[in-house]
Write a structure and sequence with these properties.
Keywords: Endonuclease, Hydrolase, Nuclease. Its EC number is 3.1.21.-. This is Restriction endonuclease. The chain is about 30% helix and about 35% strand. By secondary structure, the protein is of the alpha/beta class. α3 (about 100-105) links the parallel β4 and β5. It has a single domain (about 10-110), classed as Trna Endonuclease, Chain: A, domain 1 (3-Layer(aba) Sandwich).
Length: about 110
């Protein structure tokens, strides 16, 4: 599914487009935000937060503008960040796609590819 007429031209463009989409969905977004997890400070590509009267929801996005498919090792590392921060969801966005192991690595998690 194509949302934009023009594909992102750089990794920064990809991050900004992801933030734009989440902003339209009602989230307050920050690009390249430093967060503090239980282990360390981490710089995330896109941080999105929405507050309702009942709760807060946080989405953290990893944007990969790579010329190759994303391996499962990236998913494993990102899952750790999501869990250590306590985010509701994690999204990995890729220019090319994902290796088959990446799809296995998200089973029963709050991370989507």
């Amino acid at each position: 599914m194509t949302i934009y007429e023009n594909e992102p031209k750089t990794w920064k463009d990809l991050q900004n487009k992801v933030a734009e989409i989440l902003t339209v969905c009602g989230y307050k977004c920050e690009v390249e935000k430093e967060i503090i997890t239980v282990r360390e400070k981490v710089n995330v590509d896109v941080y999105a937060e929405i507050n309702s009267q009942v709760s807060k929801s946080v989405i953290i996005c990893e944007c990969k503008f790579w010329a190759k498919a994303i391996p499962k090792s990236v998913v494993h590392s990102f899952r750790t960040v999501i869990n250590d921060y306590g985010a509701n969801y994690g999204l990995i966005i890729s220019k090319i796609g994902f290796q088959s192991g990446a799809f296995e690595a998200i089973k029963n998690t709050n991370v989507q590819l």
